[in-house]
Amino acid sequence: MDLLPTQEQQQIIDTAASFLANEFPINQLLGAPNSDTRISREHLQKIAQLGWLGIGLPEELQGVGYGLSEEALLFVELGRNLMPPSLLGSVLGGRLAGLCGEHERMRSLLDGDIKVALAISHPGSETKIGKSISGEFLIYEPHEADLLLVADEGGAALLPLKSMQTTEDDRCIDETLGVSSAIAKNVPVLCYLPAENDHLFLRGTILVSAMLLGIAEATLARSVDYAKQREQFGKVIGSFQAIKHYCAEMAVRCESVRSMLYHTSITFQAQSPAGVFDACSLKALAIEAAQYNANTAIQIHGGMGFTREMDIHLFVKRAQVLGTLFGGERYHLRRLLCEPVVD
């Protein structure tokens, strides 16, 4: 089986990489804490015009008509360029609205007229997600958001952000993302989709894993480039065996996650019984690869790697945040072992 991107898929990758490099350079994030507005409503509408928000939706739901494989390839590039996770909220929110028959709301989401924030259960909180929402949540990128997407193993829901009782703004380890705490007590939702109809929680797991792969590959590329330029003792550090071993290990981790991502996107799209196992395995593998590569990149960059003028620290922090979305490493490892999952 050939799992390499087709020519058409490669065009998606190249177009996304070029657009993001020109419109959203990563150096914009340097020295800009709390830049919760990197994706303004105007930016979101511009992205929507490219069809990215509906790339995985069938044409009968006014989507582009591609599948999860193409969607995952796009999200690798979004992760590589440190695009905020709210784009994932828009993609999943549009799918949820369409499958629930909310076509007018779906159209507004796909056009970028509505901004969606992502919410996860607050650590230690008992939450209920159904036709009403209860519990404590952490909301990522609440600034200018209209709707909130929440999901768990049982299903996913959309609700107005203003219906949540926001308690306070929190500090996020990734200073480029805004976070706030919120409480919900039997808040009715706009639409709810059970997992048996479409497992948006696991779909989100796969797409977050794709973003983590983007981080792993970006930090590898930066490390290799730096190792070719930085000289020590009259030689470029890339000629030292220790640095070669670091970069080789990073490359192996990237390749293992990429292979798993391609495989999982196919099995999950085909509704294979192995899809759940593959998605959980992918997320655990992607978290480990992204965090290892980002941390190793700090080491390869030496004393410069710890400074704020370098962008490596941005990847370290973003990898930590993405690792918590749609289940952390321990969550998915417990899922694989078929043990009860307790947050």
Overview of the molecule:
The chain is globular. Strands 1, 2, 3, 4, 5, 6, 7 and 8 form an eight-stranded mixed sheet that branches. Helix 1 packs parallel to helix 3, helix 6 packs antiparallel against helix 9 (312-322) and helix 8 (275-300) runs antiparallel to helix 10. It has ten helices and ten strands. The protein folds into two domains: 7-194, Acyl-CoA dehydrogenase/oxidase, N-terminal domain (Butyryl-Coa Dehydrogenase, subunit A, domain 1), CATH 1.10.540; 200-336, Up-down Bundle (Butyryl-CoA Dehydrogenase, subunit A, domain 3). The model has no long low-confidence stretch (mean pLDDT 91). The protein is α+β, with helices and mostly antiparallel strands.
Q: Which of globular, elongated, flat, extended, rod-shaped describes the shape?
A: globular
The biggest sheet, with number of strands, parallel, antiparallel or mixed sense and barrel status, is: 8 strands, mixed
Helix content: 40-55%
Query: Which structural class matches the secondary elements?
Result: alpha+beta
Q: Any idea of the CATH class of the largest domain?
A: Mainly Alpha
Low-confidence stretches: none
CATH topology of the largest domain: Butyryl-Coa Dehydrogenase, subunit A, domain 1
> Strand portion, in percent?
15-25%
Rg over C-alpha atoms, rounded to the nearest angstrom = 20 Å
Could you spell the SSE succession in H and E letters? HHHHHEEEEEEEEHEEHHHH
CATH homologous group name of the largest domain: Acyl-CoA dehydrogenase/oxidase, N-terminal domain
Number of strands: 10
Judging by the overall fold, what is the CATH architecture of the largest domain? Orthogonal Bundle
